[in-house]
Structures are given as structure tokens and as C-alpha cells.
Amino acid sequence: MSLNLSEPDSGKILIAEPLLGDPNFDRSIVLLAEHNENGTVGFVLNRPVEIAFDDLVVDFPEFDAKIFEGGPVQGDNLFFLHRRGDLLPGSEKIMEGVFWGGDLEILKEMISLDMIGPEDIRFFLGYSGWSPGQLSEELEQKSWLVADSNAALVFNRDSEGLWSAIMRQLGGEYALWHNAPLDPSLN
Q1: What's the DSSP call for residue 94?
Q2: Residues 182, 26 contacting (CB under 8 angstroms)
Q3: Residues of the chain with pLDDT under 70
Q4: What number of other Cβ atoms are within 10 A of residue 151's Cβ?
Q5: CA-CA distances (angstroms) from residue 32 to 50, 118, 149, 181?
Q6: pLDDT tens-digit profile of 102-138?
Q7: What's CA 40's distance to the chain center, in Å?
Q8: How large is the C-alpha radius of gyration of the chain?
Q9: How far is CA 52 from the centre of its chain?
Q10: What is the CATH number of domain 13-186?
Q11: Cβ neighbours of residue 85 under 8 Å, at least 6 residues apart?
Q12: Three-state DSSP class for 109?
């Protein structure tokens, strides 16, 4: 994993600084799905919620998929990232092997036919959003690190340990962050 010192772009991840101070994003890893002159959209990759997919989504085949808190915007809407853009019309490619959205009726059919499994998809309640220029300001304040990403990271099964694992991988001063307490007054 390497840091990317340029302006963020779709497919990059934002890594929250350990003392960010925003409970919506403490120790979060956010995949940027869209970043342009209209603003930025992303999804928190490491905040699973304790809601069963079948309890949340009606009129869908039985499916044992994890659901994540995607961010504080539109928390009552469900979004999804997946690996099967080749089979799901309406998908937007974020990067190699990672697609956003698509036709829900075809997704239901793919799940029914076992053409897509829980390891191929991530569902999110809400998303993370920044207005034009807002993310640049937060980067100047050193609230986030920007790093390259890949499909393996997006669909990582150990989502809860992802922030600490990335901090250790980055090494140097970042390796020390993975042990930083959530409340610095406890240090």
C-alpha cells in the first residue's frame, strides 16, 4: 500500500487520521466512488452494521450478505458495490474489479441463480459525501490520507480490522497509529 499525494480520484481510499474527531469517520476507510467538480461520493468500507440483509431488504432472494454503514448521507437508502459489472447493466466502473450500482431486478436474478455471492458484493446504508472543495479543505487540514486501492481491499472479509491493518502496512509513523486510543485522554 502506498500513499498517493495527488488530488483524490475515484478508486482511491481515504484513511481517517486517528484523531479526526468526527464520530462519523473515526478510524474509517472510505472508497471514493466519484470525485469531480460537483463533489465527492464514497462508502465507508470498515463499518459493518448488525442488521441481517434479509431483515432489511424485502422482495429479494435469501442472501447472506453483510451490510455496512456507508456514511452519514441518506442513511435510509441502500447502495451497493460489486465485482460483476460484466453481468449487471447500469453499473458504473470505479476501478478494475469494482463497480457501483446497477439494475436491481437483474441483481435479484443473479443472486437467485447463484451467479453472484456475498463475497462479490457489499451493501451500504447511506454514503459519505462532500460538496465541491470540501474534501480538498479536509485534506489540507490533514484529516485524511489518500492511498491507492484495489478490489481485494474493497471486498476484504476482515473489514473491522482494515484501518489498523492499513496503518501497519504504511509503516513509519502510521504504524504507531493503529494502537492509538479512540479517546486520546486515555493515553
Answers
A1: E
A2: yes
A3: 1-7, 20, 178-187
A4: 17
A5: 24, 21, 10, 26
A6: 998 999 999 999 999 999 999 999 999 999 999 999 9
A7: 13
A8: 17
A9: 19
A10: 3.40.1740.10
A11: 91, 93, 99, 102
A12: helix
As given in the structure block, the three cell numbers for residue 110 are 443473479
Q: Tell me the one-letter amino acid at 81.
A: L
Q: Which residues pair with 92 in a beta bridge?
A: 100
Instruction: Give pLDDT, residue 12.
Output: 94
Q: Which of 41, 45, 44, 47 is nearest to 129 (CA)?
A: 41
Among candidate residues 27, 9, 166, 90, the one with its CA nearest the CA of residue 80? 90
* Cα 152 versus chain centre, distance: 12
Return d(Cα 42, Cα 53) in angstroms, integer.
21
Nearest Cα residue to 66 out of 13, 128, 121, 126 = 121
The CA distance from 159 to 161, in Å, is 6
Residue 101 phi, psi dihedral angles, 5° rounding: 70, -165
Measured CA angle at 59 (ends 159, 85), to 5 deg: 50
Q: Tell me how far apart the alpha carbons of residues 51 and 84 are, in angstroms, rounded to a whole number.
A: 24
User: 104 vs 57, 96, 108, 125, 152, CA distance in Å?
Assistant: 12, 21, 6, 16, 24
Whose grid coordinates read 484529516? 143
Instruction: Give dist(CA 111, CA 81) in Å, integer.
Output: 14
Name the phi and psi angles at 30, rounded to 5.
-115, 120
